[in-house]
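Reopening this ticket.

The earlier resolution said the output was attached, but the attachment link was broken on my side. Pasting everything inline this time so it's all in one place.
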Amino acid sequence: MLNKANIVLRAPEPHDVDFLFQLENDPQFWHLSNTTVPFSRFDLEQYILLADRDVFKAKQARFIIELIESNHKNLIGAIDLFDIEPKHQRAGIGIMIIEERRGFGFAGTALDILIDYSFSHLALHQLFCNVEKDNIKSLKLFKEKGFVVSGERKEWNRRNNKWVDELFLQLIKQ
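Inline output:
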């Protein structure tokens, strides 16, 4: 099991469909994932049931973030590896935490777990992420974990009819 302190990362289960339905269909995240239409429950059920568990074959992995409080498990977000490249030993990383659980350090703990898993278990050499330049909290989080800005994409994303710059960050295994 992937865990640290009171945070557990695990594979999505069929009973997570309603949670994923709410998370994936929250329009505040759509510009980040290039989502243009809502996901159906059926689509999410199929993803969970048919997801290839070989991350190198699927080139992606999604983990549900659970918070353990007083012996209760609360779903608070999801963290993903994407664009996994076995030859080059790298992967992208993305994280979503529900709004009412932000600011308590849970994203940082989940990120610690996934970094350790990626470098020690998957033997990746580097992780990368894309963060919009005005997303100060996410930039701070990734920089605290050792990610370094190595590029900037001008007017890369369109949000609310405005162009937003995006930063490219990397964490290379030492």
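Reporter confirms the inline version is readable. Strands lie at 2-4, 7-10, 60-69, 72-85, 90-97, 126-132, 148-159, 162-172. The first helix runs from residue 17 to 24.
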